[in-house]
Amino acid sequence: MTDLRPSHSVKLNDGHCMPKLGFGTYTTEDTPKSKAGEATRVAIDVGFCHIDAACFYQNEEEVGQAIREKIADGTVKREDIFYTTKLWHTFMRPELVRPALERSLKKLGLDYVDLFVIHEPFAMKPGEELLPRDANGKFIFDTVDLCDTWEALEKCKDEGLTRSIGVSNFNHQQLELILSEPGLKYKPVCNQVECHPYLNQSKLLAFCKPKDIVLVAYGTLGSSRDPRWVDKDSPHLLEDPVLKAIAKKHGRSPGQVALRFQLQRGVVVLAKSFNEKRIRENFQVFDFELAPEDMKAIEGLNRNFRYLPLKFVTDHPNYPFFLKNIDCELLHITTGISFI
User: Fold this and answer.
1) What is the number of other CB atoms lying within 10 angstroms of the CB of residue 240?
2) Is residue 112 annotated as part of the catalytic site, yes or no?
3) Of 187, 159, 180, nearest in space to 13 by CA
4) Annotated catalytic residue within 57, 83, 198, 319
5) Contact by Cβ (8 Å): 262, 217
6) Nearest to 23 by CA among 230, 285, 294, 214
């Protein structure tokens, strides 16, 4: 049923294929978890077969049920669905990696996932609390070797619990750490990062492409504006006059233009909406093409602006990127981290 033409999917470095357009399932605190399940059903009916989720979203039961229902009613087969889940900070110790994936599989009601990625390159205190804090409200970090965590992901792949493995929110230096690991068995198939016209990640994309690591973009429409993580004064990407003008030229929406921009750069895109009209609209991005001058104009919008700067972990030694308005050179001096 699912359209897996080459124009709609990309071959990963381990031989599996990933659909170029994915459906995001993150929910804000004030959104009922059931909405994620409802939206996933609509997304599959529309034609999405790449479903992006995570332990941290705390809605894998609802999303898994939606997938199983769509399999049961004949809309899709299991092999049509490409499902991604992520390893959370509190499960980064090698001995906790497989149990974390098995917990997700149990919630999903699935035998395997298609992609298992390290959610972010920093560890936090193990336990049931997803964001552990001390008595003073400070987040409690953990020290874990990323290569040891990666080796545990490799074992999950070997044991058939996931078909592919990758990373998320890694900078180029952290990717190099994995790639240069002695005895590396599998390269990351992807690096999932915030990426949109205001943060086009051109340097990171140029780093990943020759290494056959797919860049997967989240926040492609300007993020969910969750007040826990996103500054309320952040610019509204889809209100940008350049995007609106290009959209008008093509008879499309600014969101469709933002998604199409990424596809033409060779980036896999995730689009999140729980509105049925927008879900349908977001899927209609394969039947038009942006002209070279359109691409150049959108590239000119880059301002290295992050909607999700992960401010709560800036003092973690594995913090992966710089904050807007913070001196990158100073951060390099104080943390030893190089940034892309």
Assistant:
1) 20
2) no
3) 187
4) 57
5) yes
6) 285
Pairwise CA distance, residues 305 & 328, whole Å: 14
Distance CA(136)–CA(151), nearest Å, equals 34
Phi, psi (degrees; rounded to nearest 5) at 241: -60, -30
Distance CA 21, CA 269 (A): 5
What DSSP designation does 195 have?
-
Q: What is the pLDDT of residues 303-318, one digit of tens each?
A: 999 998 888 888 999 9
May I ask the CATH class of domain 6-311?
Answer: alpha beta
Query: Known binder of ligand: residue 119?
Result: yes
Dihedral angle of Cα 4, 86, 190, 160, to the nearest 10 degrees: -70
Sign, CA torsion 167/180/154/124: negative
Alpha-carbon radius of gyration of the chain: 19
H or E element at residue 216: strand 214-218
Residue whose token pair is 């470095």: 13
The pLDDT confidence band at residue 324, using thresholds 50, 70 and 90, is: very low
In DSSP notation, 275-340 reads -HHHHHHHH--SS----HHHHHHHHTT-----S---GGGTTSTT--SPPTTS-HHHHHHHH-----
Q: Supply the angle between the helices 60-72 and 94-108 in degrees, to the nearest 10.
A: 50
Tell me the pTM.
Answer: 0.91
